[in-house]
Amino acid sequence: MVKATDKKDEKKDEKKSEPKPEPPTPTQEIKANIALIDRAINDLETRFTHRVLRSLTALRKRINDKVLRDAIDENYPKDSAVKNSLLSWLPPAPATEQSMEVDTTSEANATAPMPPSSKPTSEPVPEAEIYLRLLIIHHLHTSKDTYSKSIELSHETVDKMQSMNRRSMDPIAAKIWFAVERSYELGGELADARPMFLAAQRTASLRHDDDTQASLINRLLRGYLHYNLYDQADKLVSKTTFPASASNPQYARYHYFLGRIKAVQLNYTAAHTNLQQAIRRAPAAKTAPGFYQAVHKLFVIVELLMGDIPDRSLFRHPVLEKALSAYFDIVKAVRTGSLSEFQTTLNKHAAQFEADKTYTLIVRLRQNVIKTGIRRLSLSYSRISLRDICLKLHLDSEEDAEYIVGKAIRDGVIEGRIVHEKGWMECGSQKDGYGPEASEVFGRRIGYCLDLHNESVKAMRYPLNAHRKELAAAQDAREREKELAKEIQEGDLDDDEGLGDY
Known about the structure:
Blueprint lengths: L1 H16 L8 H18 L2 H9 L1 H4 L5 H11 L5 H7 L7 H17 L14 H15 L6 H18 L5 H17 L7 H14 L2 H17 L3 H10 L8 H17 L3 H14 L7 H17 L19 H12 L2 H10 L1 H7 L2 H5 L1 H16 L2 E3 H8 L4 H14 L4 E4 L4 E4 L8 H24 L6 H25 L12
Antiparallel strand pairs: 1-3, 2-3
């Protein structure tokens, strides 16, 4: 036992003493990704390309001019035309960097023998060039001075990609279209890219390119909603079919855009369903916090418009707590039914609501606040004048109060009646839980249970040919009875047989 414990301790010490492997540099990661793309083309396995694209979000935050220049130098031969084309979109290396490289190489030559050349002798596959162009486009998005340059590079990349016409390039092409849209959006020319996206979407649907088609539908919807063109966005949704094999992030974006369209069209139930799907399919909150916050902002407003109050734990989420602080104040105002508090909160956070493009939806909540206030008053008072309602709910006039109370009574929000001659509202008594309505509800529940029982019986499965065994047993019993009757008739049985002791 002592020896076994000693061995375990030695293994633990060895594990602790082993240094952790250093993470690869951005240049090494790009080189490894290009090797994976080459392997995907040679083995006809797109999963390697998808593995490369999954690391794109983290990689593009670590690249700079030097990283991209080194990656291009290490993957292309010296006199390559593609290499010169890629380097032309990057600023030239500074003189200090070149002198440092010369000094280090001269010292290495003086102290060590000349190693064999590691420069590539042939160019990688064309997909590698499109991948490097994608990285350069994302790098140009980091500075306002290079927005126009990113649009030019996007145009050239799209033309080159379409001229090659390689189906193995489809996963990277979907990412290229996202980068193209981002370039136009940052440059303030998003509307100019719409004809190009429409033409590319038609081509992708004809070629059954699901990745590119899903990306382009989301690009078009984003462009329409950016300019508040909800009718055009709704027509696009009705005339296109979102590919079922699209990835979860694309589906999450698509459901979010659908939720925004349905909310503006007053179809809150469908909007709520689509936003729930977007939340379920979205990446983790820490992976994509911006999208997670945008979906929940709209989700909270849609729930309020449906007459529900969001769960309080939602506003305590570490990613959502700060982003939803203004929406939490709106929820409190709607819950208490205070119109003055609602108007104060709306004026206080109007700039944020307009930036989130939820201001018009929040304005619709005014009627919900008034209905909540009237419901609270009807529970507190058996009779209340319209003037007091006007003062408590901060309405403009008694005529407005009379109209709002009448509409609430007609919609079934409260029970009561308005006495116009005396100018007050008489609230109805509370229901005791009995009566024709309760019996109707009870009847519906019984009918549901009976239907459920009938459906369950219909869905039951019986073993095959089980009835044949019962038929065979019954037939044997009938034959035995016939034999017994025949023996009795023939007199084979003795008189004393079967009488026992009697």
